[in-house]
């Protein structure tokens, strides 16, 4: 949706929500990130300004899976206070406002962790370790939630299904030669399926870019829940570990590892969870397998002009290393 059109929609929506025909919507802008369907805006009322964030689904897609923004609402509404998160102010599926479902939360003051911008490297190691512990504590609390509280998210996905569901993305991926290890890693994953693992709500994309901190490095919110689901919660810690594993990456955007590394994060999680993690290397391998495929698929979307996002032209350099690391972890 164009900014001018969205501004008009937000004006009508805000006057309805506030019950005040005098409010004005100002400063509408597209939020940074890869999704491209999140916007910030401000409401001017009686001289006061309130800042909001709205999430909309991508245009012209089926409203299911990651495009179903109300899945995020369902998850956010069961988060306890022990999980820093954004409280949903307004949400709904009524198309009269934006032509699609939506949800609105307050804008926060601070930023996500940008590990390659140089600012994080200036922090002392104790601060960085504390930031990691805050994140891990929040993650463990997410995993303690009874998934049955959120029937909207559906039944738990099995490990086998989680492996096979990426097949169709492999077929469409760009730079397919970089995914030549996919069949072998896939078979290793299937051959070495963990006998059991804890089931609960998983975030789906738990990494530094989805952790929002204040200027004093206090965790304010776990954000971007579009991949939320129900299944093995070790998906999240395997994912987080992979994004902090220098041996998994070869691209220029993943060169600085000043935050705690994979093994340190796993130890923190075991302490927060209260027990050792079964087969954690398997889940680290699964994360590498998934993200290599995701990169190839998103690279295809970018090159075909379906979703402009040049960052994938950089990340593609890690497609092979992610699969190689997964192979090592499974061997």
Distance between the termini: 47 Å
Helix content: 25-40%
Low-confidence stretches: none
Strand content: 5-15%
Helix tally equals 12
Strand order of the largest sheet: 1-2-3-5-4
The total beta strand count reads 10
- The quaternary organization reads as single chain
Order of helices and strands: HEEEHEHEEHHHHEEEEHHHHH
Overall pLDDT score: 95
| Biggest pleated sheet | 5 strands, antiparallel
At the third CATH level, what is the topology name of the largest domain? Aminoglycoside 3'-phosphotransferase, Chain: A, domain 2
| Count of discrete domains | 2
Describe the overall structure.
This protein is α+β, with helices and mostly antiparallel strands. The chain has 2 domains: 3-106, Phosphorylase Kinase, domain 1 (2-Layer Sandwich), CATH 3.30.200.20; 111-330, Aminoglycoside phosphotransferase (APH), C-terminal lobe (Aminoglycoside 3'-phosphotransferase, Chain: A, domain 2). Helix content is 40%, strand content 15%. It has 12 helices and 10 strands. The strands form 3 sheets. Strands 1-2-3-5-4 form a 5-stranded antiparallel sheet. It has a 3-stranded antiparallel sheet with strand order 6-8-9, covered by helices on one side. The chain has a two-stranded antiparallel sheet with strand order 7-10. The chain is globular, with a radius of gyration of 20 Å. 37% of the residues are buried. The model has no long low-confidence stretch (mean pLDDT 95).
